[in-house]
Automatic annotation (TrEMBL):
One of its GO terms (molecular function) is methyltransferase activity. NCBIfam families: egtD_ergothio. Signal peptide: none annotated. This is Dimethylhistidine N-methyltransferase. PANTHER family: ERGOTHIONEINE BIOSYNTHESIS PROTEIN 1 (PTHR43397:SF1). Keywords: Methyltransferase, Transferase.
């Protein structure tokens, strides 16, 4: 029999390598992308509906109010390239306002998820040409040849996912996106629409990542549960607690798993020891100012063309030109 690549096994080994590497560091870290297994994705969906978690509902209301302006910003005959196709509800608000014809190219690493999202969008917008792209948008990737260019390409990156990237990674991402959208047959320069969560009072920020119902805690602890469930590690899940912290130097809300007493995690013959109070850093969610985001965009060759915000300026949707 031929050797076939086994994506599930490859994923598990990548997860194992990240866990061993991350727990071996002096500051223990687990990459936030492992938060999103099926259970984690479900918990994140629940987070977006929490009273304390303002970003999703604020961004959605900005899109609803500004859909016409954003569609005008895209222009006629647009190819909309969405990075990470998990946000189809928000995408549908924008697509509904676009002029016909248009092309929608959702990019996502999870093929099943991508095709399900594409099918949903297709049933609602039969006039739309849909070209799903299976790729890891956090890595360097090329758009497939033959993706229609029509008049203009617009990169769409909602959800404030840009906040999970370091400034260096954010500039690299924005630069790569510019490469994807520039240079169509019609010669129009590309554009982008990016959701950015803004700096605000600490009470609001921390509550958004430490809700009263404990959903964010369950989301964070699920990562350690995965280490036990999928990698066969031994750990006391009750010995770790969720914590949201503000890192002023990085302008980021961080999620940590704090050892509430001395703890050990055993994995593959290694023992990772924690003193009481030691933590595993699981996510950074950077908060920007409009000016600060403008500087990141400028470093990637973009200008801030439009900035759409809510009345409280809690969240911004930036139109890059
Ligand atoms: C999906 C990355 C935008 O950082 O706000 C929500 C993830 N983590 N609560 C965010 C998250 C904890 C979310 N992003």
């Amino acid at each position: 029999m031929l050797d076939r690549p086994n994506p599930a096994a490859a994923q598990r080994e990548a997860f194992r390598a990240d866990v061993i590497e991350g727990l071996s560091r002096p500051t223990r870290t687990l990459p936030s992308r492992w938060l999103y297994d099926d259970r984690g994705s479900e918990l994140f969906e629940a987070i977006t509906r929490l009273p304390e978690y303002y970003p999703t509902r604020t961004e959605t209301s900005i899109l609803m109010e500004q859909a016409e302006a954003m569609a005008a910003f895209c222009g006629p005959r647009v190819t909309l390239i969405e990075y990470g196709a998990g946000a189809s509800l928000k995408t549908e608000i924008l697509i509904a306002a676009l002029a016909e014809p248009a092309v929608y190219a959702p990019v996502d690493i999870a093929g099943d998820f991508l095709l399900a999202a594409a099918a949903r969008v297709e049933s609602r917008f039969p006039w739309l040409e849909i070209r799903p792209v299976v790729a890891d948008f956090t890595a360097d990737f090329e758009l497939p040849r033959g993706l229609p260019a029509l008049n203009r390409r617009v990169g769409f990156f909602p959800g404030s996912t840009i906040g999970n990237l370091t400034p260096h990674e954010a500039v690299a991402f924005l630069d790569r996106m510019r490469g994807h959208v520039d240079g169509t047959d019609a010669g129009e320069a590309g554009r982008a629409i990016v959701g950015v969560d803004l700096v605000k009072d600490l009470e609001t920020l921390l509550a958004a990542y430490d809700d009263a119902a404990g959903v964010t805690a369950a989301f964070n602890l699920n990562l350690l549960a995965r280490v036990v469930r999928e990698l066969g590690a031994e750990a006391d899940l009750d010995g770790f607690a969720h914590e949201a912290r503000w890192n002023a130097a990085e302008s980021a809300v961080e999620m940590h798993l704090v050892a509430t007493s001395a703890q050990e995690i055993r994995l593959d013959g290694e023992i990772f020891r924690f003193r009481a109070g030691e933590t595993i850093h699981t996510e950074s969610s950077r908060k920007h100012t409009v000016e600060g985001f403008g500087r990141l965009a400028a470093a990637a060759g973009w200008d801030l063309g439009e900035v759409w915000t809510d009345a409280d300026e809690a969240f911004a949707v930036a139109g890059l030109v």
